[in-house]
Amino acid sequence: MVLEQETVNREYKYGFRDDIEYVYRTAKGLSEDVVREISGLKDEPEWMLKMRLRGYSHFLERVMPDWGGDLDDIDFDDIRYYLKPSEKEGRSWDEVPDKIRETFDRLGIPEAERKFLAGVGAQYDSEVVYHKTLKHLEEQGVVFMGTDAALKEYPEIFKEYFATLVPPEDNKFAALNTAVWSGGSFVYVPKGVKVEQPLQAYFRINSENMGQFERTLIIGDEDCQFHYIEGCTAPTYTTNSLHAAVVEVIAKPGAIVRYTTLQNWSDNVYNLVTKRAYAYENSTVEWVDANIGSRLTMKYPSVYLVGKGAKTEILSVAYAGKGMHQDAGAKAIHLASDTQSRITSKSVSQNGGRVTYRGHLAVAKGARNVKSNVRCDALMLDAVSRSDTYPYMDIEEEDASITHEATVGKISEDVLYYLMSRGLTENEAMNMVVLGFLEIFTKELPMEYAVEFNRLIKMEIEGNVG
Amino acid sequence: MTALEVKNLHAGVDGKAILHGLDLTVRAGEIHALMGPNGSGKSTLSHVLMGHIRYEVYEGDVLLDGTSILGLLPHYRARLGLFLGFQYPQEVPGIKMGSFLNAAYKRMHPENEMEIPEFFAYVDERMNLLKLDPSFGARYLNDGFSGGEKKRAEVLQMLVLAPRIAILDESDSGLDIDALKTVAEAIDHFASPEVGILLITHYQRLLDYVTPDFVHVMVDGRIVRSGGSDLAQKLEELGYKWIKEEATVEVT
Q1: Contact B100 A412 (CB under 8 A)
Q2: Is the ipTM of this complex over 0.85?
Q3: Tens of pLDDT along A399-432?
Q4: Partners of residue B196 on adjacent β-strands
């Protein structure tokens, strides 16, 4: 499973790797013993081991999905499923091993934490190595910690929600995640609490042929409000890594929950993620999802509008340069009356990159007065790139108000000329058009992230100009 | 001294020859009006001068300050001080007018470093001249602008980017009389001994408010007659027909 060397030439500033001594690692490959070994190491309750084995058995039975991107090169026997980088989850950066701390320094995490974050979690390969929440939030009962720690500290709430939105049998990669999950974020925000600044988690893959399987569980109690952000990067290797996460988000009545992902994987990562939210009565779930990099991403954040008056907004952007395929989209499942969804997808492909929009909009029988607006726009920067759109709809109530718009465009020579006539180079002009195209997304980000996102997109475009 | 010289220019687009030996010199301190019927090649000239890659030059030369610019991409020409106000400006959604102007200004005048508040004050002053609301700077570049707003936005760019040679391609078309006066006043305000202006226009009415030093009439890709501002008056009275007839006589 060696990638062509040329696909690794992308200018990717997070492609560095660390030589670290792992505290523990399982042998390559997956077996029931490996599953039991991981559970045993974590000293888990019996119900969790059973859940893992349920996932493992379904993983074995389930065929590979053939409706999306090309998964043929994934060799499950060549992957290491668990790598423990440090003894414990640090509560201060001093407790994090030096080399790992330096990596997060390079990624700018401690600095961002000091400046504008309410809490930070940092995962390195399989384990969360650091987590911390501002004291006043902890005092109000806000919980933000690694998922493994939460299983020990909040076993009841954990058992009540874990795998209820994404059961082990949901899909092959959710089954795999259930079998070998490690790390991830656990967030609980109590009734009525508003967290002003974002809670940030950062996921870093370091090792080669590594599988990262974080499991994130987020619960927003009634009338609370918060914003959770995750970022992801990995070193550039010529062999493949696998990232198969599962995220479950519960927004109780009246809660406003925003989940933002800024994924910037190196091009050797298969990113196959299941993300699902339940929105109860009058709650709002906002899903803001950016996908840059990876060899293949298959990810369709889904919101089940289960309570009357619930709303969701799903905003997803994808960039695919050379050797990348972004198969992404969104799902809004309306199960209750007076629910609203808005799905906006923007994709950019360049230099042979491929983007696929795959969406699902459903209105169940009995869900009256539903409003939904779907818009997907694709921009191709050259003739060798590719864009496809698959919007599925199942509407079972006649009074639903649904709009759907899709556009596919190329960057126009006349627009470039116009901008160049104002002193911008062709590259600068192209950057400007792309950043303008993605602005609907960028303006939803906190300022610091918007600046970083624009910088990443510029680097990608310049690195991919033919 | 600043001068744009067009010498015996033969050019066209998509394999079709449109300009057939055009000569024109615009010096700093001068206002020129280029008039002519539809299809005479006025807009082609503007795009050849600015360097649109689809337009080809078959013969002749274009010099700025004595040096040929024909081999230069549009952004180099802009940085040398050439400006084109477009007849049909492009829409760029998601890019705010203010940040676009800032990016363009930095490239055209790298020597003038202005902090953001200073720059926006500089832009606001010029928006005032054009009677544009201050919120204009927060709108996306030409996106959803009315026809009149697009024209004023082009003139605003000229005022802000402060070129040495400005070509305005039909900046007057589609404007009501109040907007026309506003645009004319802004052009007058911009005119100075340091800049040369070429107004491309189909109608004479802009010239009621901006008095050109020279008027040229273009027919079939050539300037067939040049004169003072009285030539524009005569065209208004007699139309293009008599010029066309004369031109035909001269050629045959």
Answers
A1: no
A2: yes
A3: 999 999 999 999 999 999 999 999 999 999 999 9
A4: B165
- Residue B19 maps to a domain: yes
How many structural domains comprise chain A?
1
Instruction: Please say if the pLDDT value at position B252 is more than 50.
Output: no
Instruction: Note whether B37 contacts A: Cβ–Cβ < 8 A.
Output: no
Q: Which residue has the tokens 């600015």?
A: B50
What is B76-125 written as a DSSP string? Answer: HHHHTTEEEE-SSPPPEEEEEHHHHHHHHHHHH-TTS---HHHHHHHHHH
CATH of the domain at B173: 3.40.50.300
Is B103 close to A428, i.e. CB distance below 8 A?
yes
**CB pairs < 8 Å spanning A and B:** 76
Cα–Cα distance, A54 to A39 (Å, whole number): 13
Asked whether residue A143 is domain-assigned, the answer is yes
Q: Using CA of residue A44, residue A48, residue A50, residue A53, what is the dihedral sign?
A: negative
In this prediction, residue A10 carries a pLDDT of 66
Would B180 be classed as within a structural domain?
Answer: yes
Cα-Cα end-to-end distance for chain B: 38
What total number of domains does chain B contain? Answer: 1
Residue B24 lies in a domain: yes
Q: How many CB atoms lie within 10 A of CB A147?
A: 22
Q: Provide the residue range defining the domain that includes A141.
A: 5-299
CA gyration radius, chain A: 21
How much is the pTM? 0.89
